[in-house]
Amino acid sequence: MTFVTYAYDAGLARITLADPDHGNCIHPEAVAELLEAVHRAESDRARVILLAAEGRFFSVGGDLAGFAGANDMAAYIERLANSLHRVISALQRSEAVVVCAVQGPAAGAGFPLAAAADVVVAVESARFSLGYGNVGLSVDGGSSLLVNTLGLHTTLRISLLGDSLTAQEAYEAGLVTRVVADTELSGGVDRVVTRLLSLPAGSQAATKQLVREAAGPAPEWALRREARSIRIRAGTKDAREGVTAFLDRRRPSFVHD
Q: What global pTM score does this model have?
């Protein structure tokens, strides 16, 4: 694999976003490798999956240059959303407890990818943001499921206004489980993983299933709605202008279609 690395040892599967030069952005090849890695963790019967990233960013989100270069941006984004949603669903449905280590910004689709974990450990300087509206798109990647954790109006605030959450704010909202110093991420994650591996696997898997189903018995329905919506938005003039303006580093001039 080129964009993701995988390693397994003693019940722990480590899945690492490994494209730091491009901010671990979300594109078809990276998402395919992510899904392959999750399936490998399932084959290895991992008890804990650790999702982490190399570099300064956890993930900057979608590869907007790829969006702009697609012959049919709407179809391209819909395919990407559906592929990413398979990853999100697999992580949430996995019997393994999923731990996410966030060492920098988790933006766009990188935010709900991190939030798909059961336990999130973030450094103090980490930031969580969506920003889909800035480029004329609607949310995807399971962003609408954030309402189960953050509540209705916080989710609306970060979705509509583009506000970001600090690691401490995300902790107070219930999304982040542990906030650690920027230099202490590895130790903080190791403590969480060690604790999880010390507990009965069957009990952990059953508890995860019960709690997740209580929060939302059919997350795939929300994911399908997101994919359909983002395809519609990606076909608009506002989306084309938003993506182009972002790449040109200028303020977009939306037509409000």
A: 0.95
